[in-house]
Fold these 2 entries.
Entry 1:
Amino acid sequence: MYEGVVQDLIDELGRLPGVGPKSAQRIAFHILQSDPVDVRRLAHALNEVKEKVRFCVVCGNVSESERCRVCLDPRRDPAVICVVEEPKDVVAVERTREFRGRYHVLGGAISPIEGVGPDDLRIRELMTRLADGVVTELILATDPNLEGEATATYLARLLKPMGLRVTRLASGLPVGGDLEYADEVTLGRAFEGRRLLDV
Amino acid sequence: MAGMSLFRDDGVVLRTQKLGEADRIITLLTRQHGRVRAVARGVRRTKSKFGARLEPFSHVDVQFFSRGEELVGRHLALCTQVETITPYGGRIVDDYGRYTAATAMLETAERFTENEGEPAVQQYLLLIGALRTLATGEHDSPLVLDAFLLRSLSVNGYAPSFGDCAKCGIPGPNRFFSVQTGGALCPDCRVPGSVVPSPETLVLLGALLSGDWETADATEPRHAREGSGLVAAYVQWHLERGLRSLRYVDR
C-alpha cells in the first residue's frame, strides 16, 4: 500500500478493464515520472471526452454534436440502415468502405439471462425512424453469436409487416483461412449462405 | 507434473461470460460432474477453432485441464478441446419464442445445480431432452418450457401435485391450488390464498409433468396460459431468487 494520492491513482487505474493491481501500479509510476505537460494533456483528454461526447439523437452512435457525422452527411443513402449492437461496430463496418447508408445502434443485444429484453434496446427509436417510409432496406449486422442472432430474429419478425427488405449479414469463412480448419458450425453456416456464381 | 489432471465429459453450455481480452468463462451442465465452470482461451477471436462450438444451447464433448486432482477445485479448469455433439443453438435461435423458452430452461438448470461438481444426471437428461424437443418444434415452446420446469422441480424433490390433495392425499381431481402448500388441495385442506384454476388447466399440468403430450397438445390456449402462470409462480416460490429470464418468455 502506498500513501494518499499515489494509492488513490493506483486504485482508480485498477478499475479500468484489463488493468490488474500490478499494471495499475506500473502506470501510476509512469505517470509520476512523466513530464507535467504530457500528464495535463491526458487529464484534458479525459475531461473532454466526458464533456463533449454524447449520443446521436438519430442513430445512437457516439457523437460530438446532436447528430453524428454519418447522420449529417448528405452523401449517405437515407434509404438503407445498418443495425448494429455497439458504436464500436459502426467503426468496424465503416472500415469496410462497402456501406454507404446510415446506421442504427441498438446499445446491446437481447439476453434474457442477463435481464436485457427488447425494451432495453433502442428498438422503439428504430421503429420511429422507419415510420416516414424513406427507408427501404434494413441490414441486420448484430454479432454472429447467439444473442446477436436472437436479436436479428426478433427484429425480422417485428419488421415483417412493414414490407421492407430485411437482410442479415452473411456468416462464414474468414478470408485468408483454410477450409480444413473451419469449425462445423461456421462451415455449416457458410453452406447455408452460399451464393450463385454468375459468370 | 503433480496435481494436474485431464477430464473428459459431455455437457450443455448454459452461459458464457467474457473474460479479459479474448477469453470466456463457460458454464456447462455436464453428465458426470454436474455444473462446471471452465475457462476457454481465445474463443472470442474470429480465428478461434472452437469458439462457435461453445455457444449456449450447444451439446458438446469437452476435454478439461485442471490444475488440481478434481475438476472443480480452487482454480477454474481450462477447456482444451471441444467437439460438437448437437448444435441446438441454430434451430432454437431461428424462432424468438423458442429462444426465450430455451433461455429460461438454461437459467433453471443452472439454478437447480448450485453445487458445482456435484453430479445432477437427471437434471442433465431433462435439459438435453427438452432442448431436443424444442429444436424439432413438434410442440408449442411454452408447453415444452412448462414441462421442463415441472419435471425439474420434480427431480429436485419439489414435485407439485395436480390431482391428489397435496396435504391429505385424497384422490383428485381437487378444486383448489396453492403454490405454498405443494399443489392441488381438497376443500378441507384449502389454505388462505388458494386459487381455483379451471379443471382443464390442472389436467394440462398433470399431463406435462407425466409426459402425456397428446393431452397437452390438445389444450386450449387460455388453459395453457393459466397453467404457465401457475408453473411460474411455483418455480419462483421454490427458487427463492426469481428466474430473470422467465418474464421475457414470448408466449
Entry 2:
Amino acid sequence: MSDSVELVWSRSAVYIHPTKNNKDNIAGYLSLVRPPDGEILISWVPESLIKLSKQDYESYVQVDLSLDGEVTQKNQVFVSKPPSMSVGSLARSSHAFSIKLSDLYSMQMREPSLGWWYGSILLFTKQAETLPVLFFHDDESEVEKRRTKTMQKKRDDWGGEFFMEKLENYVDIRPSTLEKGVYLINPSAQDTLAFAPPVTTSNEVSGPNSAKAATWGDLKWNIFEKLAQVTRYSRKASQSMFDRTPAPLRSMLNIPEVEQLGQDFDSARVFLAEWALGIVQDQEDFQRKNININLNTYDSHFDDFSIVAQSIERRNPVTLEEWESFFDENDGRLTVTAEEVKERIFHGGLEPQVRPKAWLFLLNVYPWDTSAVERASIIAEKRNEYYRLKRKWWENIDMQENDSFWKDQKNRIEKDVLRTDRNIPLFEQSETPHPDPDSRLAQSGANPHLEQMRDMLITYNEYNENLGYVQGMSDLLSPLYVVLQDDALAFAAFCGFMERMERNFMRSQEGMRDQLSTLGHLTNFMLPKLYSHLAKADSIHFFFFFRMILVWFKREFEWDDVLRLWEVLWTNYYSSQFHLFIALAILDLNKAYIIERLHYFDEILKFINELSMTLDLDTVLTRAEELFTKFKLALDLVNWQNNQSEDTKSQTEVTEDLRMLLSREIVDQREQARPPGATGG
Amino acid sequence: MPPKKSMLKVIILGDSGVGKTSLMQQFVNKKFFSQYKATIGADFLTKELTLDNRKVVLQIWDTAGQERFQSLGVAFYRGADCCVLMYDVTNHKSFENLETWHDEFLLQANPLDPENFPFTVIGNKIDVEEGKRQVSAQKAQRWCQEKGNFPYFETSAKEATGVDQAFDVTARNALQQDDAEGLDQEYPDGVDFSQYEQEPSGCAC
C-alpha cells in the first residue's frame, strides 16, 4: 500500500488551458492527498489519467461529491499516489503534478467573471517550478450546480475559494501586502521581505522622486514609465537581473499561459509593476544601458501596455432564448445572479426583442429578485400610479388656464416633442388631421405617440415638482417609449432613468459642472499630454462635452447604437459613471488629431460636435473598458505607493471625484425646491 | 499689403424655439428644415462675406435657449463682436425675455464698453398668418430705440425673408466693433474653416 495515499479533498472540473484554444483544455481533479509519511500534497491529475483505474475514479468522484468535498476520519478513501512534478515522462506530457505543502511559496487567486472568464489559481513553489494555471470551470462542477440549486451559493463564491478554505486547515495563509489576490503560504519574515520591496529602497524611490512629483503628471509618469520597463524586462531581461528576482516571480515570468492570456497577464502586470517600483533604484544603471526610453513621449509609454486590451472584446447581444434561460420557468425568478446578467449585458448588450423585458430591470421599475407574479403586480401598481398622476393635471382646469408656470412648461414640452426623433417611424408626420386644430401638436397631424410623449413629460413635470421639465429630457424619454411602446411603463422607466440623470438638469447646473470637472481630472490623469494641449487651447472647461454628457451621447450615435450604449451604461458594471469613460475614450481615439491640428476652443468644439454620427460604438466601448482597466490599475499603484510612504507630503493625492469613479452606486444629486416665482427656464 | 481678413464673432441669443438654429442655417446654408432638434450646448457655422471690399469671416454661434444652460456658456461669449437678440413674433413671452437675454449677455461677455456694444434685434416667424402675431413691429422697434438704437429686423427663416439684410448689418456693426476694440486677431493662416461646414441633416423642406 506504499503507493496509495489518502484522498483528503477533491474537486472536479479544474482545468488547465495549455493553449489559447478551448479544445486543448484538459479537465482534471485538484486534490489534497496525504501520503503515508503524513505531509499533505496538492495534486492535479487529468481526469483521463484517473479514469485508467476505475477504483480511483470512483474515489475521486465520491470525495468530490461528499459534503464539502471532504471525508471524515471514519471513512477514509485511498487512491493511487499521484505523479509528482518531476517524475517520468507520463507526468510531463499529461501536465499532472503534485507538490508538498511545505514547498508552496505563494498563490494568486483570480476571481471569475461569469460568461467571460473562469476563476483561476496560480501556485508558486519555493523552487520556482512552473506549475500550470488552474481554471475552475464551476459551471461543469456537480457540487457547484447543487449549491446553486440549494441556494447555498453566494454571489462571489467560486471553486478557488473552497480550495483556499480547505488549504487553511493545513497552512497559514496570509494576504500579500502588495497585491489583492496574492497570498503567502506559511510566510517567514524573510519571505515577506523578498516579496515586499526593502524598506530602504522604497523610501529612496518615493522620497526624492515624489518630492519632485508635486504634480500629478510627474508622479503618474514615474509609475507608467516603470510599468513600461517591466514590460520590456519580462521579455528580454538579462540573466543577471533575473537572478536577483524573487523565485516565485521568476516562475511567473516563465509561465507561458501568463503571456498567452491577456487577462492573466493583466494581473501579473500589476504584481510585476509593484515589484519593479521596489527595485527600480537598483536597476537604474541597467536601464540606462539597455533600454532606450524617450522621456518626452509619455503617451507612447502608456500605449505600451495596450496588451491589457487584448482580452477586451465585445460579445454578441443577449438573445431572447438566452434571456429566458436566466429565469426559472416555473416562478420566473432569476436562476443566475443579477451580477452575472449585468456583466453579460455590459459586454454584449441586448437583442431588440429582449429590451422591453430587460430595460424594466435595468431601470429599476422592478427589482432583479422578483418572481413573475410579483413583477406583474408591480406593473399593475405602476400603471395605476401613472394614470392617477396624469389625471391629476388633466382634470385641473384651473391650473391649465391660470398657472403661468404650468402653461410655460407645457409650451416648452410641446415645442420639444415636435422636434424629438421625428425620423423614427413612430413619431412621423401623420396625414390624418389632428382632431383639435388649436393644439400645437396639430401641425404634425393626428399622431397619438406625440400626444403620449407630451403627456408623459407633463406628468413628469408635475411628478418631480422641484425639477420639472427641462430641455433634453424628451431626448431621454423617446427611446424608452419607442422600445416599451406603453406610456405607463415608459413613464416608470423614465422616472428610474431620471434618478441618475436629475443632476444633469439642475437650475444651478451644478451636476453638469461636476461631471465636466471630473472629466477634466480624468483626462489629466489618463491622457496628460492631451490635457496640457487642451489647457493651451483654453479648453479645459471641457464645455465641448456638454451635449454628450447631458443626454448621454444621444446626439452622437445612430439610434440603434444609443439603445445599446444606454443598456450598457445602465448596468453600472464597472462604474455608475462609466459614461465619463465613454467620453474619455472618444478623446483618446481622437487625441492625435486634436493635438496636431486643433489649437483653439472653437476648433475643438466644432471638431467634437462633428464627430456626431461618425463614431463606431464597439470601438468606443472597447476603448472605454480598456481605459477603465488602466485607470483602476493606476489608482491601485498610487494607493500602494502611498501606503509605502509614511511621509504624507510625498504621497500622491488623488481627488475624491476620481476615486468615486470606482463606485457603482449612482451619484445622487437632487434639485432643490423651486424658488417662488422661478420660471422653468 | 493685402486687405486683412477679420474673424467676426456673432452670438445669437433668445428663448427656446424662436428659430435661432433655423435662422443660422438659412443664412449660411440657404436651407430650412422645420424639425431641427433642440440645440444642446453650443455650435457655430462660419460664412465668408465681403463688406466694402473687405473680406470677413463671420462666425455665428447658436446656443441652447433654455436659460439654465447659459450659466456654463461663458466660454463662447468671450470675444464676441456683436450679439443678435432674437424672439418669435407669435410668442409675446419670447419678446419680454429680450431684456433678460440682453443683460445676461453683457454680464457674461463683459465687453470693454458695454454702453456701445452692438446688438441686433430680430423678430422671426413673420410668415405666420396675421392673426397669430402677438408682437407688433412698432412695439419691437420702440423697445430697440429705448435700449440703445439697436437695428431691428423682421425675418422668416422659413421663407428666407430679411435674413441676409439682418446679417449684413450685424456683420458691419461687428466689424466696427472689432476695429474699435483694436483687438482684432487675424484668423490664423492654414486653418480652413470650410472643412467644417457641413450640410445640415434632414431635408430642405
